[in-house]
Amino acid sequence: MKPESIVLAVAGTFFGLLVGWIIGSQAGVPRLAMSPAPTVATQSAAQPASSPQGGQGQQPRPLDEAQAQALRTAAERNPSDAASRVQLGNLYFDSERFGEAATWYEAALKLNPNDPNVSTDLGVSFYYLNQADRALQQFDRSLEVDPKHGKTLLNQGIVRAFGKQDLKGAAASWQKLIDLAPTSPEADTARRALQGLKSAHPELDGSNPVSKPGL
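The structure corresponding to this sequence follows.
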């Protein structure tokens, strides 16, 4: 799985930007700069740009054309080689060429359809292509393979919040992650996100129900 395969780092002061973006109901997908956060195993979370809609962030990594060509050659020579296709997806993802990344992740999944890591990376690529619905559908596929896949659940909540403005759905994804893997690094991030979300929207807390007019 890509180090950048967590869509956002929803922790600390950044969560204020998340809440502000939701309250503002701004259209479109937040553009995020990719930069490594403290490593968790081999994973790291993408850090936000200076504003939810973009800003000055780290530039995408230039595509290593020689490496890409070598991997394409390996993929062409071995039609059953999923690994080279995943590496190509990762290479294009690092360069923020998300359409090409998605193409190679899809090719890898045709060979190994039950890899939740690659499936989730594909979902993240869809998200960055402004295709939140496809991203969520792909996360559902990842969770069919591994219902406890932490990074999928974390991303699912983020895309629900950012891509669909579905705050209840986001809270449900994060709570499920916390319930399934309470000591995981992903659950720590989800816990902070959920706390911030409920602070801004108390009606999402089941202990503080808010009646709706006409109901």
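Residues 9-13, 19-57, 208-215 have pLDDT under 50 and may be disordered.
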